[in-house]
Amino acid sequence: MKLLTHYAQAQRKQTQSVVNWRENNINDALYYSYRSTHYDSDDYPSHLHYHDYYELLIFLEGDIEYVCDAQVFRPRCGDIVLIPPRTVHMSRILCDRTLYRRHVFYLYPEAFAPYDCEALAAILQKTDSGGLLTLSDSEQLTRLLSLLEDYDRLLASEPDPLTRALSTAQLLQIFYLLNGAALTQGDHQRTPTNVLEIRAYLDAHATEISSVSAVAEHFFYSREYLSRLFKKYYNTSVADYLRQRRIAHSQALIAAGSPITDACYLSGFGNMSAFIRAFRQVAGTTPSAYRKMLLPT
Question: pTM here?
Answer without folding.
Answer: 0.79
